[in-house]
Amino acid sequence: MEKYICKTCGTQFPPSVHQPESCPICMEERQYVGPRGQEWTTLHEMTESQIYTNEMMQEESNLYSMKTAPEFAIGQTAYLVQNNGFNLMWDCITYLDEHTIETIKELGGMDAIALSHPHYYSAQAEWAETFNVPIYIHEDDREWVMRDSEHIIFWCGESLKLQDGLVIHRLGGHFKGGAVLHWENGNEGKGIMLTGDIIQVVADSGWVSFMYSYPNLIPLPAETVERMAGRIKPLSFDRIYNAFHRVIEKEADLAVQRSAERYIKAVRGELFQT
Question: Domain 2-267 falls in which CATH fold?
């Protein structure tokens, strides 16, 4: 049996004799099915092709990024956060090979995986089994787990403390259980927020935005964004890393609040006339 992977979103499915009929994540309006229809691959096919590699880069002290090249599926970046001897993988990518495993072991291994939202679940169970670590997912997004695993821990409430200085916060928005990671000790103690695309850093650096669907350009209601900004406001952080290697280098906390105000005015018709 094969563990089939959706080529559009990169999600791995449970072992099966036959390919799944469809990918529920891509059939939903926050994603899409590619123009050639539903296509599948496997991790074995990907590694045997010798096409792919995972690029790991040190972004700053105790923070490494991981991205598959050439780009596969959504093309997101995952991060390895090192906090007082605790190594956390924030978000996940599909591709996993021996070179990646050895590189992570050289960096001290992995103690846990935590996810911002379902579009980045990818091959999370494969990674968790390889490193024998727990996966933290908010219970509100339980239905989007395509491959169940004994490693998954569904957490509840508005925040989950993984370690001193390392806390997951549920903001909702893009998905009901959409979460961000507050790394208080990062950036020399100034604080880092890793946001996936629950909070999306945009092309105009210094600003962010918020969407229900990014590929299909479906906005969130003003009230939802107002609530998200309110939940994150008490947290101290100076820098943001999103899921696509975009960074707000400084005063990121102010950028989120400023951007939320602009967004709310825009969707309420108060920002411009056109």
Answer: Metallo-beta-lactamase; Chain A (3.60.15)
